[in-house]
Amino acid sequence: MTAEKAQHNKNIEKFHCSSKFGSFFGVSQQVFDSVWDRLTSPDGNSVAYVSMEIGADPDVFHPVKTILQQQKIRKSSDKELQQLLTKYLSGPRKIPNYSGGLGVLAGDTLKSFADTHIPVLAVSLLYREGYFSQFVDSEVGQIDQATSWSPEDTPTLFKLTDPENPGHPLEITVPFYNEYDHHTEAKAQVWMKLEVSEKLDYFVPEFLLDYAIPSSPPWVREAGLRLYNATSAIMKANQRRMLGTAILPLMQALGLTAQTIHLNEQHGVAVTLQLILRHLEKTLGPAYRVEMTDADILAAAQKVAQKIVYTIHTPVKAGHDRFDRSLYTGISQDTCQQILNLLATDEESPSQYNFTALAMRVNRAVNSVSRLHRDVTRRQFPDFAEKITAITNGVHHLTWISERRAKLFDTTTTLAGWRDDPGVFTHALLTHDKGFCKQLAAVWQQDNQVLIRYINNMLISHRNQMIETWINPPNYFSHLHDVVELSENVFTIGFARRFSTYKRADLIFDNIATLSDILLENNWKVNFVFAGKAHPQDEPGKTVLKLILDKQEELYKRSNGLAKLVFIPGYDMKIAKMMVAGVHTWLNSPKRPLEASGTSGMKAAINGVPNLSVMDGWWVEGYHEGKTGWKFGYEGPIQEDSLSEDPATLLYKEDSRSFYELLPKVLTLFYEQQDKYLQLAINNLLLNIPIFNTHRMAAEYVRKYNLDLNEETASRITGFQRLYRSEPAEKH
Ligand SMILES: *Cc1c(COP(=O)(O)O)cnc(C)c1O
To answer: Would you call 495 helix, strand, or coil by DSSP?
Structure first.
């Protein structure tokens, strides 16, 4: 047998597993058993990571898929292997259960936990109508439609069966109290997905709770259909409860023993109420509901806090769940309200429960998602200022570095091992490596071509669709009689993220005349490529999106055709990956300090794309003057109205003026000093990859978990911890 063939067989072996889970997902028996043993071990030495949304499209990144592709295995007579091929090589495999940064961060985090062998399981909900699908019409703006997808037809999801009732799905029972203290039960099926490590030697299971089954009450089924369904307060409250209250029943049903619960945002915080009640039952006995005093509750909360790690993601008010107390009297027990009355009080709004306040009170560690966000969070929650620390977000470098760039890194000797350890960039001497610079320029150009061709095809297909559908093509260029295309190698600015007012997508179009004059004076061509969804209930967000469409014609005409602004509908991870690698700069124009971290800019940076950004979120840490990109806009102290989203406080005039002052410098560099522009890219690789990756971030979280790790894992984690300290003052 040739060595190659032997290797091939060895690789196939990796995918075989006698456990039906293992063979379903493509991990070996040994790997499956060792991870599962850890997660079910009586010592509870593992973490349950709870998130309302998880974004991890197998189409964008999946190690099993990558290995099959690298091996050039396309077909196999081996039945199990053929199943894996079908599962991972024929797409799309997207699970549309994420809305934006929070979900994508969760997915990236879980992938890094898997890569670094941290014992974690994840819990989220399964939304059968997903997050909505976005259509965009030039007259109407965004049109939202439920996404139709079916977990039954999604081969990367495994529906758990009931060990006591073989052949039937496992159903977990989640207790609810409804209509004034009436006990009800919600039932959920459980779908499992694995985030597998890059080497297929570890995994993190995700459990997605699916309440849309006949045995659940109709109101539960409905509340679980769409992510962030906010058509009514009660719908929203129920969706939160369906996440938080299911964690313990789920873990119990599967024998999972995690002693630490990580709340990725406060959405799942209801778990603390259950834990407090359990603790009271244990200490006070069966009559605890009548006997418990406020002091008992506070003491129990202190105990429970030892289990909870909490990450707060935003200073924006809409991100903090508040519910009317009167609503809660209708949907919970008296005992629950007694706890909430003590722990979820809201000084600003005494008639409401504040669930951010609850999460703030009941935890062992709480972190913000960047240094600046830490300072803002401390200001917002002065009572907890001391315990609020920073763990700056990251992105999963293996997911977000474009395939072409990754290939270049793979063949660069000084970058050996970059896949396992993004820290290798710190010491790589690339700055004067002419060969590397040239190759980087070449792959960047190719990634730009891919993006521009995608857009040009899109413009044509929208034009054709117009004949068949009632949708007016979103882009001006699809309406013109003569075909107008975007050109490659033209300076391309990318902007893509959720459309929220504070993100100010339209900031740089505040003064089209000024913008056009800058381009006309120098005959500079610019492509502006925009994408993003506004939450279906966010009318102001939708207005901003419509404004982008409305500016297209004016900008094109005033700039005499130099500026072309296009909008790509249906933003998702796939479009994100193409954009961050294909543009020449990544624009971020939020109102400081409302962008707690932002991660799309990191995705650009790790591809070497310089950021053009307001000094907010992660950029405060990733910006190095003259080296990694540019800053513009207000940078002064945080003031009273800094946290307001009121239109009058959004600083459009000031910050757009600052952008127009900066723009000529950026364009001069791009069009006249290509070498210097390329140096910015190199600097981003060297300075920002080692920091803004989720391996480093996961390692910082591990510090908060108190896990007992084996020596090998512990030393690897220590290595990642050394890459950066989000909290420089912290003693270790
Ligand atoms: C990365 C990402 C985001 C987050 O972008 P921000 O800059 O943090 O707002 C949102 N949506 C998708 C699809 C992403 O990939």
So the answer is: strand
The angle formed by the CA atoms of residues 90, 96 and 100, to the nearest 5 degrees, is 125
The residue out of 262, 279, 307 marking a domain boundary is 262
- The answer, yes or no, to whether residue 588 has pLDDT greater than 90, is yes
Residues 486 and 146: their CA atoms lie apart, in Å, by: 31
264 pairs with which residues across the strands? 51, 311
Q: CA-CA distance, 29 to 22, in Å (whole number)?
A: 6
Helix 539-558 × helix 512-522 angle, to 10° = 40
According to DSSP, residue 128 is labeled T
Which amino acid, residue 346?
Answer: D
Quote the pLDDT of residue 90.
80
Which residue is listed with tokens 């505040």?
A: 510
Residue 72 has pLDDT above 50, yes or no: yes
Residue 382 lies in a domain: no
The two tokens of residue 595 are 């962008």
Pocket of ligand 1 (CB under 6 A): 100-101, 104, 497-498, 571-573, 576, 598-601, 603
The domain boundary, picked from 217, 246, 262, lies at: 262
- Burial of residue 103 (CB within 10 Å: 0-12, 13-18, 19+) is buried
CA 698 to ligand 1 center in whole angstroms: 19
Domain hosting 25: range is 1-132+142-262
Tell me which range, 89-103, 356-370, 639-653, is most confidently predicted by mean pLDDT: 356-370
CA of 31 to the centre of ligand 1 (A): 32
For the CA of 601, the closest atom of ligand 1 is 7
Q: Whose CA is nearest to atom 10 of ligand 1?
A: 100
**Over residues 485-508, mean pLDDT:** 97
Give start and end residues of each alpha helix (H) in 116-259: 218-223, 233-244, 247-254
Whose CA is closest to 138, among 455, 613, 469, 501? Answer: 469
Q: 0.90 cut: is pTM over it?
A: yes
pLDDT tens readout for residues 206-227: 999 999 999 999 999 999 999 9
Residue whose entry in the numeric block shows the structure tokens 């999460």? 359
Q: How many domains does the chain have?
A: 2
Point out the least confidently predicted range of 136-145, 634-643, 669-678: 634-643
CA distance 358 to 263: 12
Does residue 728 fall inside a structural domain?
no
